[in-house]
Amino acid sequence: MAWGGGWGGHAGGASTMFGNSQVAGLPFGGIPSELMDEATKLLATEPQRERSRITFTQRPPARARQRLTLPRLIGAYPRWVVAGSTYVIAISLLMQAGPLLTGYAINHGMVRGHHSLTVVGACALAYLLIAVASALLQRAQVGVTGTLASRVMHDLRIRVFTHLQRLSLDFFTEEKAGVLMSRMTSDIENLQQLIQDGISQFAMQGLTMIVIIVVLFAMNVTLATWTVLLVVPLLFAFSIWFHLASERGYLLSRDRIANVLADLSESLYGTRVVTANNRQRRNIANHRHVVGAYRDANLYTGRVNAIYGPVTITIGILAQGLLLGIGGDLVLHHRLSFGALITFFLYLNRFFGPIQLLVQQYNALQQGRSSITRLRELLETAPSVEELEGAPDLATIEGRITFENVSFGYDPDHLILRDVNLEIAPGESVAFVGPTGAGKSTMAKLANRFYDPTSGRILLDGVDIKTVTLRSLRSQLGVVPQEAFLFAGSIRTNLSFGASDVTNEQIEEAIDVVGLRELVDRLPQGIGTAVHERGQTLSAGERQLLALARAFLARPRVLILDEATSSLDLQSETVIEHALDRLLEGRTAILIAHRLTTAQRADRIVVIDHGGIVEVGSPGELLAAGGSYTAMFDAWLASGGRDSTRRAV
Ligand code: ADP
Questions:
Q1: How far apart are the C-alpha atoms of 257 and 251, rounded to whole Å?
Q2: Identical fold at 391-476+557-580+588-619 and 483-555?
Q3: Would you say the C-alpha torsion 465, 469, 475, 476 has a positive or negative sign?
């Protein structure tokens, strides 16, 4: 346990796994043989699929730049659209045959003087056949629209995700993850619902109303006029009120659930900070607030719904009374057949369903439409860092970095860096030091083209980095961020992240180089061992070493390293320093140094403060000059700087 003491229990908090037992706390201790046998059997019956070939270009192809609209979305599958529409029309017509058949059976088979069992029997049989036929058609229609919806949504999900991969860093810092998640989940699901049910229902109910109105007028103009003129405007007016009110409720609850999700994800990801700062009570209070607002929005929608149902029922009953009075009078004066009156009644009832459903579907239609608008906005957000049309690849570089009159502000009106000039020679390692918030990380982000300078240029081997493809640029720049992000998967997949074609031998070599050998040997499946989501089972130091190994495998010409600020114990620091020495061999490096130990080992130190470079020179030169670096260094020594460095100076 050479590392046991050094790597156990430091500030990170999640590092006890190697302290007590070698396997305790690991994701799993191997696959049981019976499970493995089952898995092998399953694999034997799995069909071999080709690996999907994916092309990703930073500039979206013309097809992906088209404006997102519903017709375009479903228009990609014309055959399915035609089939679905045909079914919808056929069903709407067939469904309305029932009342007509009933009226016919009464007039020609049941009323005095027209008794005929044959007519009644034939009508009943026809009724039955039509019911069966329309059920079969409905089944087919649901199948068709379901398939159409699934395909369209699959395309859309991939399109949105691909777009997210293109967007620049600034988008993800401004936009909350919860909001993005809701675009990807509920907005897309809304659309799926709309295509699956909404549009076909809307068309079917609309057609049904038209068919009924035509039939009613054909039978008796007076009665049809009364029914249509009184009932339809009243129902529609009321339904429009309902629609406006419920849309308001819908928008409210939509915004508020987004807040709930955002609050939830923030609390979940920040559990450690929450616990450490005793923020649980405050968090609960805050969550109560956002959840309460969401409940209020739902209550409002509930109240609106509670008014709508009973009022429409009342309108229906009143209409039936009216029909009975006027229609009965017409029958008594022999101006309407008895069968026709019954047909009217049956149709009247069928009138209400479609109007209510139309309004409901109208809501779904609106929801779908606003989802489309939101997704369209997302898809139309251009990445702030864009590749020039037809930009060439950056040729293999030696590694000279030049900052030429660079000014930059996240908000262009508020510059963080002003007119910065710096030249870093190939193979040179340069440490950026300075107070927090001075702009050290910003300089590094500019070099990697996460952002573009507000003015000035950044050159790599004399080539403006704006003029080359992002892919070729980033493949030659290695970035080791402060917080190494580990993805769910094995150590192997995590290490080969930046270079997918590396061999196991190369991975093992990288493990040796960064000094992770002991850790890996102790793990049950070596480099095949799974790490937990975000690497929470590893200590901060181990995560950092893995990030260094990842950069080592990608073999970039230039390395940008944002040193982790979390304090490490002496032994871990030594291991990391060794790893760094190996990693920096022959490479140009920008080190954002939070520890002066690291700065002292660099070829040159650049002190950044007040929006620019205040001092540049080798560690020895700067200490001799007695400027701001010397002041920083003295303060650091006074607060107990590392012994080894003190000796070195
Ligand atoms: P350092 O690395 O020297 O600690 P940074 O380069 O991270 O400093 O930050 C410089 C300044 O820019 C700080 O004032 C910081 O608040 C601000 N800043 C950093 N990132 C962003 C961002 N994504 N959006 C807006 N302001 C930012």
A1: 10
A2: yes
A3: negative
b/e 85-105 (16+ beta carbons within 10 angstroms → b)? bebbebbbebbbbbbbbbbbb
Q: If you measure from the C-alpha of residue 99 to the centroid of ligand 1, how many angstroms do you get, rounded to a whole number?
A: 73
**Residue 15 Cα to chain centre, angstroms:** 31
Please say whether the beta carbons of 344 and 157 come within 8 A.
no
- In ligand 1, which atom is closest to the CA atom of 173? 23
Q: Are 535 and 26 in contact (CB under 8 A)?
A: no
Spell out which residues line ligand 1, taking CB within 6 angstroms: 173, 410, 416, 434, 436-442
pLDDT of residue 28: 52
Calpha distance 172→165 (Å, rounded): 11
pTM for this model (two decimals)? 0.68
Q: What is the pLDDT of residue 11?
A: 38
CATH number of the domain located at residue range(s) 483-555 in this protein: 3.40.50.300
Contact 607, 613 (CB under 8 A): yes
Q: Note the pLDDT of residue 31.
A: 64
**CA distances (Å), 36 to each of 490, 508, 529, 595, in order?**
18, 26, 16, 48
Q: At a CB cut-off of 8 Å and minimum separation 6, what does 388 contact?
A: 466, 467
CATH topology of domain 63-379: ABC transporter transmembrane region fold (1.20.1560)
Question: Where along the chain do its domains lie?
Answer: 1-48, 63-379, 391-476+557-580+588-619, 483-555
Pocket test for ligand 1, best of 384, 416, 417, 565 (most atoms within 8 A of CB): 416
pLDDT under 50: residue ranges of the chain:
1-27, 643-649
Distance 430 CA to ligand 1 centre (A): 20
Atom of ligand 1 nearest to the CA of 169: 23
Contact between 604 and 430 under an 8 Å Cβ cutoff? The reply is yes
Q: 183 is written with which tokens? A: 């675009």
pLDDT for 29: 53
Strands (E), 409-454: 417-424, 429-433
Q: Which CATH number fits domain 391-476+557-580+588-619: 3.40.50.2300, 3.30.230.80, 3.40.50.300, 3.10.450.50?
A: 3.40.50.300
Buried b (16+ CB within 10 A) or exposed e, 608-639: bbebbbebbbebeebbeeeebbeebbeebeee
**Of 106, 147, 142, nearest in space to 124 by CA:** 106
